[in-house]
Amino acid sequence: MSSIYKKYQLKPVINASGRMTILGVSTPQPEVVAAVNLGLNHYFEMQDLVDKTGAYIAGLLGVESAVVVSCASAGIAQAVAAVIIKDDADLLLNLHAKPIHGPCEIVLAKGHNVNYGAPVATMVALGGGKVVEAGWANECSAEQLAAVITPNTAAILYIKSHHTVQKSMLSVAEAVAVAKSHGVPLIVDAAAEEDLRLYYQLGADLVIYSGAKAIEGPSSGLVLGREQYVAWVKKQGKGIGRAMKVGKEGILGLTCAIETYLLREKESGEQMVAKMRPFIAALNEIHGVSAKVVWDGAGRDIARTEISFDQAALGRSAIDMVAALKGGPIAIYFREYKANEGKVEVDVRSVSDSQLSTISEQIQQLLKEKLL
After folding, report:
1. What's the pLDDT tens digit per position in 269-281?
2. Contact, 154 vs 103, CB < 8 A?
3. Least buried of 53, 69, 267, 350, by fewest C-beta within 10 Å?
């Protein structure tokens, strides 16, 4: 492995930020790697592979239908295109070349219209949709969502993510009720969520997951839901989905990853806390640095270490520390959403005990260098 880093002059990385796209997301289990290799080395009738793996996944999850796509972002774009185009064969081939005469507005809470690495609105636009925001940046109720639904509404889109505003936002169940009462489909982007059945069971028509995040598969995505809507998503392979196609290795790798994901015991938040205790104790020994356990803002059973840097005591800000640690001989990446407040978070799910020690040692070393 080290030869790869040397050959291409790549910097080793400690991923303390979680399952993030910018770092390659996750490291699949050996059986998933084997399924990817099998896919790479064999031929298939691709539509047959798409249909039958989708049916197999649907059976595993107890949903009407499912399809593997290239990533969760592609899932959003193709789901939007699906609810706009439906069975219109001409529009399928000319989505961005001809006017759309039917409903094309995609309603979502203003606080859900975020940039998760790319803007939600860009994915909606790729699918031919036009975003209509409901509520305010810090508030959206079921009534506010319903108020912007018109005959031109093609779907409601709900973004279930830590990137979105969490307070004063309607729940998925409330969004389902609004969608059903107005006769429009509900699409839930649940890219990093861990429960592969919950949102479908709550009544969402299409649910989108990243294949490489919680599921720990190869780069891929999963769209599941009602049979007719998934069928329309599949049709996008001859439309905008052609530019987002997933390979045979991704399809087989994700199918295997879902099987193993459903069977393996999940690491609990309390187990993460136990793993972090020595790390937190070591950090709290460093002058100007304090650390504690915090829990996932989106409500998942994920515990993290929050590190606070006292700028007055250290003579450098958290932003400076983050930049310096990324620029070291081993690039260390944190969750840095609150770096402007002097805080970063460490996600320990992809970090070994020895790497946690390296992080605390590198912080200590940086601060010693500053004092010299």
Report:
1. 889 999 999 999 9
2. yes
3. 267
